[in-house]
Amino acid sequence: MLQHHRSFMVPALALLLLAGGASTVQAQQGIAGVPVASAPANASGDARAPYAWSDLCKRSPAECRVDVSEPERVEMTPKLWKAIVAINGRANREIEAVTDEDHWGVVDRWDLPEDGKGDCEDFALLKRKRLAETGVPRRAMLMTVVIDEENAGHAVLMVRTDRGDFILDNKRNAVLPWSQTGYVYVKRESQVRTGWTSLGGAQTSTVASVR
């Protein structure tokens, strides 16, 4: 079991979503079996960046840079859907999940899992890198912090498309519309500057570390 630096109190509505949202909400199916998210995950103002993300930016500035000339959303095609599903599943199989405490001897560290080990944000960074190599614009792929089914901080990759926002997660191989994961969405990378923006799901200052 991967450990967290801090636990969270989740509102009653969020607990209901965590308990049943993913199983009761069904995606609308589009062409070629690509699901359609019912609505985008809209931002609601600035948020404090995770401190380990800020450290990553100092070590690897390109991982945090925002190019506003790129599109905010990418066109979802059968080819892109196939790539997203394949890259998500392959990374989940290849990388050994370990805590940052066990891996680096620190509470929280974000990095590409070049030695084959990592926790949630490392999985997400690798998936973003591999999708970028296929031509997906970096601006449409956002590191995102959520509260998971264990009431703890967790990081996933959100891909913003013209068919909705989809989540690549190291906890599952299925790529789901954001609203079907059962997670409470806290914050994600900004698409207009180097920084983070709130998704309104919790007090953004409470998320100290993620897995």
TrEMBL record:
Q: What is this protein called?
A: Transglutaminase
Family matches, as PANTHER family = BLR5470 PROTEIN, PTHR39327
- Annotated keywords: Signal
Q: Which domain of life is it from?
A: Bacteria
Pfam (any one):
Peptidase_C93
- Species annotation: Bosea vaviloviae
Organism classification: Bacteria, Pseudomonadati, Pseudomonadota, Alphaproteobacteria, Hyphomicrobiales
Tell me the first and last residues of the signal peptide.
1-27
